[in-house]
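ok posting inputs for the zinc ion job
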Amino acid sequence: MKLENKISASLMCADPFNLGDIIVSLEKHKIDYLHIDIMDGKFVPNLGLGSDYIKALRRHTSLPFDYHIMVKEPDDIINLLDIRQNDLVSVHYESSFQIQRTLENIKKHNCKVMIAINPATPLCTLEEVIYYIDGINLLMVNPGFAGQNMVHNCMRKADKVGRIIRKFNRTDIIFEVDGNISCENARKLKKYGANLFVAGTSSLFSSKNLTENIFKFRSSLQE
Ligand code: DX5
Ligand code: ZN
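and the output
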């Protein structure tokens, strides 16, 4: 069964001064998820969004969260988060000494568990876990910062991920793409089977006109 295309709005790219209005607007336009980047300054060279801040957000929105965890040994962090049934949680293959165990720990929260793959992560790792996961988060940039250009091999890598999904008969899987997802890149990635698109400074938050940007991004996914 093929999944419908969905949008995950990247909160690290939203203007904190206008966050309340932005969330109201994302809800009004039925954006599917809030993409929450969690960074420890070790696994990636940047810091961001803290557990208290994230819990505070929960009080102001009913949108499900799409946690992208970029920390060393993520198991300790998982318990600090308020993870709910409709949430997605992705962890990087390289971030845990025992990724299989980490994926199973996350699964105990009854959420959807996903493996995050960096531009240089070998895809054989995906083949090893493909029957344990609900999704893949394929990074099109080296994670940690908004506003980067796509790493050149990543389009080809997305094509390969699509082939692996079909080879293993997992077309029910969530195939998320994250980093430099402009309208044009989203259109191309959709052809490779991507079905969840992280919308950051390359699309929804490229200007102050959020409503227009949502409309344009959605149209590009329908072409
Ligand atoms: C990359 C982050 C993304 C990013 C997406 O490390 O995980 O969420 O902010 O936005 P842009 O479009 O700025 O790459
Ligand atoms: Zn992310």
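notes: Strands lie at 6-10, 33-40, 47-48, 65-70, 88-92, 112-117, 135-139, 174-178, 196-199. DSSP finds eight helices and nine strands in the chain.
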